[in-house]
Write a structure and sequence with these properties.
Helix content: 40-55%
Strand order of the largest sheet: 1-2-3
Shape: flat
Distance between the termini: 77 Å
Structural class: mainly alpha
CATH topology of the largest domain: hpI Integrase, Chain A
Length: 500
């Protein structure tokens, strides 16, 4: 029969389950109606489900009519009441603003009227808006407003007994109540420090990127008060990025535009949350769409093939290193290939290795900063140990260097990246998709091939998978390290580099 879609089986019993219409669900605060059919017989369950469906359909229609006709509720628009309240509030604010303007105008003209209505003022020296002249106006004004002034509704605070003294004094003036001025809004540029202070987790490169975006925006809108900034100001920066030429020629890459524009939008969202700015939906400003070439470009990096890895490990740096700097460079490439560590992590890694039971580990607990999972221990594979990594680490520690520091001057991740990319272009291949970071891609392939499970692979790799279970037992255990050591193998032979 046609009602099977409303019947489902749970623990050998049948249940009726029906989705509520959207307008009813908004009021009922539930999306489905579920009820036991009190049977384990499918035919009986179908008949009962059919009867329940008909009864429920009639009931829902009755409720919908009552909502519309009696209670004036539109379930399809749960925000209708909120919209009406906001509209009423806006009307009330506008009404109060008009009243305040009228009060200010009335107060100003009243002061002029009283001043010009003194006995020593020449007749006809002034005129009210109604055209009433001199002393006649003075009498009418005194009579008309004296009671209001006594009650203080005009805000003058003058006692009735002092009126004669006020009007008799030639130089007397009635001081108006000073209006409360809203605090001046600071220029947006002055809040940069506070914004960055609220984000202590940003690394130096990201802070530099934020400051570059802020400097460019400052050139576009100047030191505008933060309360006056609106969405068109952010859109002006998006247009600036869209039309800005790249240093290599052409326009900026779409990913660069998205990142830079995201800095400004993040800053404005922070300013709104802090009460400095008005929420003008700054996040709605969009970067330009990617070009056809950008859509077709796809992945800009690829993993090494086994032939390319073989060529790398048989190149000059590994076979005939010349001095301390060449040795450090070779170890940088070997560590990147067989640990999957990021460039900046290898640069910051300490020379001292960590023992996890009987397994040596690369210590990235302080060096890893990119994600929550980046601080980690990476077990050192047998190939690296056979190449003499423990002896190299001891030698670097004795010098007071970090693990791959080539000289007394510590080099940056950018310096290493440029140096090694040039080396790969000269000694392996000039394919622009093959860069230093490609070794991390190759290491991920090694993890997949070993089939050690995504959770352990992410823990070693320094990736956060967002699963609740990943937060339990986050520290690497000895058993996990042993599983890693036993299963991960380099796709190419490295015996020619072994020194033990």
């Amino acid at each position: 029969m046609g009602f099977c879609s409303f019947v489902e089986k749970r623990c050998n019993r049948f249940y009726f389950r029906m989705r509520l219409p959207v307008d009813i669900a908004a009021i009922a605060r539930r999306s489905h109606v579920v009820s036991s059919l009190q049977t384990d017989d499918l035919r009986l369950a179908k008949r009962r489900a059919a009867r329940l469906f008909l009864l429920l359909a009639a009931f829902l229609e009755t409720m919908r009519l009552r909502m519309a006709q009696t209670l004036n509720i539109d379930g399809n628009d749960p925000n209708q009441t909120e919209a009406l309240v906001l509209e009423a509030f806006a009307l009330g604010q506008a009404y109060e603003a008009r009243k305040a303007l009228l009060h200010q105008e009335f107060t100003t003209k009243l002061r002029q009227l009283i001043a010009n209505g003194r006995d020593d003022a020449p007749a006809g020296a002034f005129a009210t808006p109604l055209g009433v002249q001199g002393p006649l106006m003075y009498d009418r004004a005194f009579t008309a407003v004296s009671d209001e002034m006594v009650r203080g509704s005009l805000g003058f605070g003058i006692k009735k007994d002092s009126f004669a003294e006020v009007f008799a004094s030639p130089g007397a003036r009635i001081a108006p109540t000073p209006a409360r001025q809203p605090p001046a809004s600071p220029p947006w540029d002055s809040l940069r420090g506070g914004f960055l202070s609220d984000k202590p987790g940003l690394n130096a490169k990201t802070v530099w990127s934020y400051n570059q975006a802020f400097d460019a925006w400052l050139g576009l809108i100047g030191k505008k008060p933060i309360a006056d900034i609106r969405r068109p100001d952010v859109k002006a920066y998006a247009d600036f990025l869209r039309d800005r030429p790249s240093a290599r020629g052409g326009s900026l890459n779409q990913k660069t535009i998205v990142r830079c524009l995201g800095h400004i939008k993040t800053f404005m969202v922070w300013a709104v949350a802090a009460g400095h700015a008005v929420d003008d939906r700054f996040e709605a400003v969009m970067a330009r769409d990617p070009t056809r070439a950008e859509r077709l470009a796809g992945e800009k990096r690829r993993a090494f093939t086994p032939a390319e890895l073989t060529k790398l490990f048989q190149s000059r740096l590994f076979m005939k290193p010349n001095g301390q700097e060449d040795e450090a460079t070779g170890w940088f490439l070997a560590i990147a290939a067989l640990t999957g560590a990021r460039t900046e992590e290898i640069v910051r890694a300490p020379a001292s290795l960590v023992m996890l039971g009987d397994i040596y580990c690369l210590d990235l607990r302080q060096a890893g900063q990119k994600t929550d999972a980046a601080p980690r221990l990476v077990p050192i594979l047998p190939d690296l140990m056979a190449m003499g990594m423990a002896a190299w680490a001891s030698k670097q520690a004795a010098r007071g260097y970090t693990l791959v520091q080539p000289s007394p001057v510590q080099q940056s991740a950018g310096w290493w990246s440029k140096r090694l990319n040039r080396y790969l272009n000269s000694n392996v291949t000039d394919d622009p998709r093959l860069v230093l970071y490609s070794l991390r891609h190759s290491f991920r392939q090694m993890l997949r091939a070993a089939n050690i499970g995504d959770e352990l692979a992410d823990k070693i790799f320094g990736h956060s998978n967002g699963k609740v279970g990943a937060g339990y037992g986050r520290d690497l255990s000895h058993d996990e390290a042993q599983l890693f050591i036993a299963n991960i193998r380099s796709p190419v032979g490295l015996g020619h580099l072994w020194r033990i």
